[in-house]
Automatic annotation (TrEMBL):
Assembly and oligomerization: Homotetramer.
GO MF term (any one): fatty acyl-CoA hydrolase activity
Name this polypeptide is given: Acyl-CoA thioesterase 2
Start and end residues of each Acyl-CoA thioesterase 2 C-terminal domain: 153-282
Superkingdom: Bacteria
Catalytic activity: a fatty acyl-CoA + H2O = a fatty acid + CoA + H(+)
Acyl-CoA thioesterase-like N-terminal HotDog domain boundaries: 33-109
PANTHER family the record matches: ACYL-COA THIOESTERASE, ACYL-COENZYME A THIOESTERASE 8
Amino acid sequence: MTNPAERLVDLLDLERIELDIFRGRSPDESLQRVFGGQVAGQALVAAGRTTDGQRPVHSLHAYFLRPGRPGVPIVYQVERVRDGRSFTTRRVVAIQQGRTIFNLTASFHSSEPGIEQQLPMPDVPGPEGLPTLADEVRAHLGTLPEAFARMERRQPFDIRYVERLRWTDEELKGAEPRSAVWMRAVGPLGDDPLVHTCALTYASDMMLLDAVRVPVEPLWGPRGFDMASLDHAMWFHRPFRTDEWFLYEQESPVATGGRGLARGQIYDRAGRLLVSVVQEGLFRPLPPAEGAADGG
């Protein structure tokens, strides 16, 4: 398969090796650790596969405990905590080479009538008129580095920043800890709602900590900080498709003590709030020699 969206669907298609035990692939890529969104998305697939499929997930809470090793399979063990009249609860432990690297609790809820209200979506330009990430890098550097081109070919999401990227210290001055992007899968993801939910869970970890970085360094280019997701929480408010455009608005209310907190809101084109996200991440300065031009 050459389509990155198809590869994402395949990555989320876990192998069932026992009633409540699943195994997920971990691509052998040139990364120091497994991407956290991959582990979260796969864990949510495992949780969802142990339900009757009639109740969509409404929230998840997770902790990243150890870095996962790329190229090594991950086993997901599911505990059926509760099957109630309206709610279903599952707990998932991700294990790699005998060590727990991640745990997740997910709650599923039957749809029911209730009040309808939300704060409005920010007034931002639509995605069609915005440059792609590759276009922004090419415009800044005059060319697209091969390392970035390889990453772009593997990337399952089209990403378009609402505001022009800042590349210099001068441009960073006075920047608020906020960021916003339009995103969608680069190809169809099928019609299984669980796949779309898990694909968006994958995407939600891709750049939420961008909001912490905005005031201190360019989002793409040499990295001056060691960043890693520590925990992750999501609330799913309405049905959605991850292969249609969604706006991912992020802000960081605080960064201190080597950690940064980020909040995200995900909207569809109609302005409906689909998902709320909160994450805390490690945020430590790297010694100058350890900075890497991997960005994002």
